[in-house]
């Protein structure tokens, strides 16, 4: 597992004139739990579907675990995927689903699947259509993990779940990744879903990647600066303003800086992941609504 | 994947097998009627025309006649029903429910996924319609030979091997339509419309070109007319009987110079005041010939094989389109 998990280069997907993903360049190292965060319609699903080969790129290139997504049984076996809303066959039982997985995946781990189903308290003869949303998501996750993939991709796995099911799902996912050391990419429109489980984050808005990197590195290179009112141009050298807000006498900046900020006239604070993501999200909103900015 | 295809197909397969079994019982029970009625024909030594006529009249009016027309309807309904209920939902329902995203992310390519489904359910299609057609053709064989009409359009499409090819065409049509439209109900409607047009086009325009028709112009035999009608404007309609034991395409009286004969009537030779039979005598004296184009019963298997080949070819083309679409466009 030394190879890069996902590599994208100028990756673009268009539907007619509509751009779903524009010029996406990524390099995700192995062994990470990657959070893909962005508002609804940002292109998260498009990126993940490109990564499993459900979609083909309009332009650019994507390789997953060194191969072209969806290209042949070997590549399919390496990637586990839980699609948005965790689709299952409503009229087939839990057992039928597991048997389907067992018959179509050479690396299927029946013991793992059975253990998970037992742990979740699911009745194997229950039809999937009669399961709750949380149970269906768990069934889909069980199918994805029991094929023992090197990379697990989950598209908004908890979006439709209530808070308890959400926590249960995340707990199950974490237990699995801790035990099997597979890489994970999961998307959400809520930072809080990802905060506790991810060690790498990609912020995607308006079909573009705004920032991507290890959370520790990002946290170590972003600060909140507060001081007497000033312009962004007057910030210390090397500090790039991501977001700024001003009151009459005071300015607050969220900046990216690879060197520690040492300016006695500014108060330097650490950010939370949520602050950091929100800063990048609001920057792209601001860039798209200049009239709003001047009106302030 | 074979197991999973069977698991998804189990219910329709059982329903179809049940329906076939019920039909088989119906055919076995009513087979006695045909055998009983046919006894007089079987016993007939010479000049059996009347015995055959009597057999057919009694058969069509018996319970066997009801079974006969029912099987005819079933033979025409089975292929489009397979296209609508087995073909159209095969991919469309997966796309509607989103389950294709589950199925295509197991460790099998979607090409193999589709190949298994097309192969197994296609085989079931051929087996079901093959059995059905064999049973109905065998059951109706005495009636068909007595009526000498197995090559005529209505019976032709409900006997022999063409129903198998119709059904395979309908099935692949349904699958392809479902893939293109991505929604089950519109795909079903589209399948029915296209299937009906294709199958109706065969007897109307295309089938006659599958084997060379026989073209003859014998002298018009006044003793072998279906109808002779004269209307008030003086137009004469002469309708010779169709060729026996054949599928008649064209059948019209022509003048010695080759024009279609439509009159006008000669009032001095044929009119309301003249004795009966005078019109027949007058038309007989005109030297008319009969322009007849037909396919004799001897071409039955040639036409069956050719039409089967046409629909198997269409089914294969649709299967190729569905694989291409699955790989290139369905994303």
Please name the defining characteristics of this protein.
heterodimer; A: 296 residues; alpha/beta; Rossmann fold; 2 domains; six-stranded mixed sheet; four-stranded antiparallel sheet; 34% helix; disordered C terminus; B: 331 residues; mainly alpha; two-stranded antiparallel ribbon; 5 strands
How does the SSE layout of this entry go?
The complex is a heterodimer of chains A (296) and B (331).
Chain A: E1 6-15, E2 18-28, E3 33-37, H1 44-52, E4 59-64, H2 72-78, E5 79-82, H3 94-104, H4 110-120, H5 133-146, E6 151-154, H6 163-180, E7 183-188, H7 191-195, E8 200-205, E9 208-214, H8 215-219, E10 222-228, E11 239-246, E12 250-257, E13 266-269, H9 273-288, H10 290-295
Parallel strand pairs in A: 3-7, 3-8, 5-6, 6-7
Antiparallel strand pairs in A: 1-2, 1-4, 8-9, 10-12, 10-13, 11-12
Chain B: H1 2-43, H2 49-61, H3 63-97, H4 100-103, H5 110-139, H6 141-147, H7 153-156, H8 162-181, H9 184-206, E1 214-216, E2 225-230, E3 236-240, E4 246-254, H10 278-284, E5 289-296, H11 300-328
Antiparallel strand pairs in B: 1-5, 2-3, 4-5
Helix pairs in contact in B: 1-2, 1-3, 1-5, 3-5, 3-8, 3-9, 5-8, 5-11, 8-9, 8-11
How would you portray this structure in words?
The complex is a heterodimer of chains A (296) and B (331). With 296 residues, chain A is of the alpha/beta class. Chain A has helices at 44-52, 72-78, 94-104, 110-120, 133-146, 163-180, 191-195, 215-219, 273-288, 290-295, and strands at residues 6-15, 18-28, 33-37, 59-64, 79-82, 151-154, 183-188, 200-205, 208-214, 222-228, 239-246, 250-257, 266-269. In chain A, strand 11 (239-246) and strand 12 form a beta hairpin. In chain A, helix 3 packs parallel to helix 5 and helix 5 (133-146) packs parallel to helix 6. Residues 290-296 of chain A have low confidence and may be disordered. With 331 residues, chain B is mostly helical. Chain B has two domains: 2-212 and 299-328, no CATH class; 220-287, no CATH class. Chain B has eleven helices and five strands. Chain B has helices at residues 2-43, 49-61, 63-97, 100-103, 110-139, 141-147, 153-156, 162-181, 184-206, 278-284, 300-328; strands at 214-216, 225-230, 236-240, 246-254, 289-296. In chain B, a hairpin with a 5-residue loop joins strand 2 and strand 3 (236-240). The longest helix of chain B is centred in the N-terminal third of the chain and has 42 residues, at 2-43. The interface between A and B is medium-sized, with 34 and 17 residues.
């Amino acid at each position: 597992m030394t190879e890069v998990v996902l590599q994208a280069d100028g990756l673009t997907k268009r539907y007619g004139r509509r751009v779903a993903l524009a010029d996406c360049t990524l390099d995700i190292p192995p062994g990470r739990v990657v959070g893909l965060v962005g508002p609804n319609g940002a292109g998260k699903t498009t990126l993940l579907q490109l990564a499993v080969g459900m979609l083909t790129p309009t332009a650019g290139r994507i390789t997953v675990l060194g191969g072209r997504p969806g290209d042949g049984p070997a590549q399919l076996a390496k990637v586990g995927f839980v699609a948005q809303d965790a689709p299952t066959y409503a009229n087939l039982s839990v057992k039928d689903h597991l048997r389907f997985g067992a018959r179509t995946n050479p690396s299927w781990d029946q013991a793992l699947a059975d253990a998970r189903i037992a742990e979740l308290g699911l009745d194997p003869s229950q039809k999937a259509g009669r399961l709750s949303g949380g149970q269906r998501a768990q069934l889909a996750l069980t199918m994805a993990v029991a094929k023992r993939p090197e990379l697990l991709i989950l598209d908004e796995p908890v979006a439709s779940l209530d808070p308890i099911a959400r926590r249960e799902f995340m707990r199950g996912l974490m237990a699995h990744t801790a035990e099997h050391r597979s890489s994970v990419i999961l998307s959400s429109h809520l930072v809080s879903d990802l905060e506790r489980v991810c060690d790498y984050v990609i912020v995607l808005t308006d079909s573009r990647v705004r920032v991507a990197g290890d959370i520790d590195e990002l946290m170590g290179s972003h600060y909140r600066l507060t001081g007497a009112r000033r312009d962004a141009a007057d910030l210390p050298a090397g500090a790039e303003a991501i977001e700024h807000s001003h009151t009459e006498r005071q300015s607050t900046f969220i900046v990216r800086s690879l060197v520690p900020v040492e300016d006695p006239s500014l108060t330097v604070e650490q950010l939370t992941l949520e602050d950091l993501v929100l800063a990048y999200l609001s920057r792209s909103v601001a860039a798209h609504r200049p009239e709003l900015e001047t009106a302030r | 994947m074979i197991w999973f295809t069977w698991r998804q197909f189990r219910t329709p397969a059982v329903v179809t097998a049940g329906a076939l079994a019920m039909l088989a019982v119906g055919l076995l029970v009513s087979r006695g009627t045909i055998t009983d009625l046919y006894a007089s024909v079987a016993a007939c030594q010479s000049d059996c025309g009347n015995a055959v006529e009597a057999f057919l009249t009694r058969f069509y009016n018996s319970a066997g006649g009801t079974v006969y027309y029912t099987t005819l309807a079933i033979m025409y309904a089975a292929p489009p029903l397979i296209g609508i209920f087995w073909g159209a939902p095969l991919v469309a329902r997966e796309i509607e429910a989103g389950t294709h995203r589950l199925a295509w992310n197991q460790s099998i390519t979607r090409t193999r996924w589709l190949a298994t489904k097309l192969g197994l359910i296609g085989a079931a299609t051929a087996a079901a319609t093959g059995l059905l057609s064999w049973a109905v053709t065998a059951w109706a064989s005495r009636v068909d030979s007595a009526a000498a009409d197995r090559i005529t359009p209505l019976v032709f499409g409900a006997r022999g091997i063409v129903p198998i090819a119709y059904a395979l065409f309908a099935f692949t049509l349904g699958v392809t339509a479902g893939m293109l439209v991505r929604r089950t109900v519109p795909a079903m409607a589209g399948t029915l419309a296209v299937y009906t047009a294709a199958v109706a086009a065969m007897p109307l325009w295309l089938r006659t070109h599958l084997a060379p028709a026989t073209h003859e112009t014998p002298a018009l035999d006044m003793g072998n007319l279906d109808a002779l009608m004269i209307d008030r404007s003086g137009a004469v309609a002469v309708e010779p009987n169709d060729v026996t034991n054949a599928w008649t395409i064209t059948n019209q009286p022509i003048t010695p110079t080759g024009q279609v004969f439509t009159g006008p009537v000669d009032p001095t030779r044929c009119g309301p005041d003249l004795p009966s039979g005078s019109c027949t005598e007058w038309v007989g004296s005109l030297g008319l010939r009969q322009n007849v184009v037909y396919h004799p019963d001897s071409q039955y298997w040639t036409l069956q094989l050719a039409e089967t080949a046409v629909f198997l070819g269409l089914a294969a083309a649709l299967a190729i389109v569905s694989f291409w679409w699955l790989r290139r466009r369905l994303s």
